[in-house]
Each structure stands twice: as C-alpha cells, then as structure tokens.
Automatic annotation (TrEMBL):
Pfam families: Band_7
Gene Ontology MF annotations: peptidase activity
Natural source organism: Streptomyces avidinii
UniProt name for this protein: Regulator of protease activity HflC (Stomatin/prohibitin superfamily)
Secretion signal span: none
Residues forming coiled coils: none
C-alpha cells in the first residue's frame, strides 16, 4: 500500500518499487508507472495501485477419484500481474486518495479465479484415476494438468496475469482410508522388523554357540594339558622313585659289602686273636706243664689271693705253716723269711 501524506489540502503519494500506480485526473492519465512519487488533489484524482511482484496463492480443495474415494488436494500457485493496465481495466485496483487502501478486493478475485480453474482441472484428472494410482502418481499428473489448464485459461492473459509455477503439495485420502492403506505397508515393515529381530537373535545365538564351543574347546585343551601334566608328574615321580630305589640298592649293597668286609675283618681278627690266644694258652700250658708242682701251687695261691677280698692280717698256726711250707717244697727254716 502506498504512503499518502497531507499538506495544505494537497496529497503526496509515494509508492513501492513493486507497485504500479495509475493516476487519472479528470479522466486523463497523468501518472503511470512503478515507484512513483507525486502531489495531487484528492477531489479530482483517481488512483489505482496494481502489485507487480510474485504472489503465492495456497489452495486446498476436495476431489473424488474414479473409485468414489474422497481426497484432499493441497497446491500452491505462484503468479504475477505482468500487464498492470489490463489488470486495472478488468479488476478494481482503485485506492482511496486519502488513505491509500483498496476500495475493493482485487486480489481475492484473482485468487478465486485461479483456485476455481485449478480445482476444475484437478477434478477432471482425479475423476478418471483410481485412489491407489492417485496417491502414487497423482501429484505429477495433477500438477501438469493444472499448469496446462491455467496456461490455456483465456481470462488470465486478458486480465494481465501470468502463472509462474504450480506446485502440488499433497493428495491425501480420508483418515480411515489412509489408515487402511497404511496397514499392509505397516504389516510388511513389522514383518521385516521381526525378521531382522529373528536374524539378529539367530546371529546372537550363533555367536553364543561359537563362544560356548570355544570355551568348551579351551576346557578340553586345558584338561588335556592337565592330563599331560599329571602323566609327566607320574613319570617324574616314577623316575625319581626308580632312581631313589637304585640309589638305595647301591647304598644297601655298599653297606652290605662294607659289613661283609667288616665281618670278614672281624672274623679274621678273631681268628688271629683266637690263634694268638691259643698259642698263648698253649705256651702257658706248656710252661705249667714243665713247671714244678710247688710252683704251680704258689701261682694258684697267688691267683687265689688276687681274687680274694683284702685281708688285713692272717694268723697261721705253726702246724698249718709247716704243712704249707712242706707242700711248697721249702724248708721249715724259710718261714722266718
């Protein structure tokens, strides 16, 4: 909307670069162009403001497919007014010279024209298309049909309107139908998810089985090594016992041999000692045999005296002494000695 200021009964208009201003004074065109700025009198001026920028028109309407299913269509049409003079001649773009606001609703008229035209061509396409095909390929077909229909609409060029682009945002069925259509896909997705879960579980079970087999193989290998260790320990113990027994045998044989040698030495010594004793005894006997009886009696008395208890004094009668001396072969006079 243009900016209008008041000065002493005059009005000053300043428009934007995207607005085309047409100023008529007493039926004569005085100003015509974009971004104009001029003074005028409100009582004699007729002003029109036509926007020439690109405009976005969002539209939504219902249609019915060939299988009698209701769908909602959402689309957007981008348009612009390429010929402001024709648009101002066909539509009411006049503005109040005091406020600068539109007297009518020209943009709503353009929106109604574009919406009804687009809806007509959309209904023509969807009425011959089943719901499943409309949901899959309907966006492209509806967009092409609406673009061709708007390009062929004669009222648009006559009004100075050019359609820039047509976009179909979505074609959606009713909520119940949409849920029903989603059910097979959801079931398939759920089946795929279940299959992936089962496969993941199978992989986990397989990995657990591999781990268990590895643990079992490790335990078997450990048991085998323990068996080898036990066998080796038995072999070492048996070898140690054998070597100990052999050492004990050698030690026993050595000890026995030593004892035999000692016994032989003792026997030899005993024989030699016995022989020596026998010789001594024989010599002793030969000496006694050659000795006189008195001498033998004296020796016997001496030996007897050696084995008797100590006698401090002995009193002999003369008769006993005489008999003793007689037996010893000495004269009686030797008693005093």
């Amino acid at each position: 909307m243009a900016d209008i200021t008041r000065r002493f009964g005059w009005r000053h208009l300043r428009s934007a670069p995207t607005a085309h201003i047409r100023h008529h004074n007493r039926g004569r065109l005085v100003h015509d162009g974009r971004g104009l700025s001029f003074w005028y009198r409100s009582l004699s001026a007729a002003l029109s403001e036509v926007p020439v920028d690109d405009r976005e028109l969002a539209m939504a309407f219902h249609a019915r497919t060939s299988d009698f299913q209701d769908v909602a269509v959402q689309a957007t049409v981008t348009y612009r007014i390429s010929n402001p003079a024709e648009a101002a001649d066909r539509l009411d773009f006049s503005v109040d010279p005091d406020t600068g606001s539109w007297r009518g609703a020209p943009l709503e008229q353009i929106a109604t024209l574009l919406t009804e035209t687009a809806q007509q061509h959309t209904l023509d396409v969807l009425a011959r298309t089943p719901l499943a095909v409309a949901l899959v390929d309907g966006v492209a077909s509806v967009r092409g049909s609406v673009a061709a229909g708007l390009a062929a609409e004669p009222r648009l060029p006559a009004t100075g309107i050019d359609v820039v682009t047509v976009r179909v945002v979505a074609i959606r069925p009713e909520a119940e139908v949409e849920r029903a259509l989603r059910t097979p896909a959801r079931e398939q997705i759920q089946q795929e998810a279940d299959r992936a879960t089962y496969e993941r579980r199978a992989v986990a079970v397989e990995r657990e089985r591999a781990i268990a087999e590895n643990e079992l193989a490790s335990q078997i290998e450990l048991a085998r090594r323990e068996e080898q260790l036990i066998d080796q320990r038995g072999t070492n113990a048996r070898r140690e016992a054998e070597e100990k027994a052999a050492a004990d045998g050698i030690r026993t044989e050595t000890e026995a041999a030593r004892k035999v040698r000692l016994a032989r030495a003792d026997a030899e010594a005993a024989r030699e000692t016995g022989a020596a004793r026998a010789e001594v005894q024989a010599a002793w006997l030969r000496v006694h045999d050659e000795a006189a009886p008195g001498t033998l009696h004296a020796l016997a008395a001496t030996r007897l005296a050696e084995n008797l208890p100590r006698i401090e004094s002995v009193t002999l009668s003369p008769d006993v002494l005489t008999g003793l001396l007689t037996r010893l072969g000495r004269p009686e006079g030797g008693a005093g000695a």
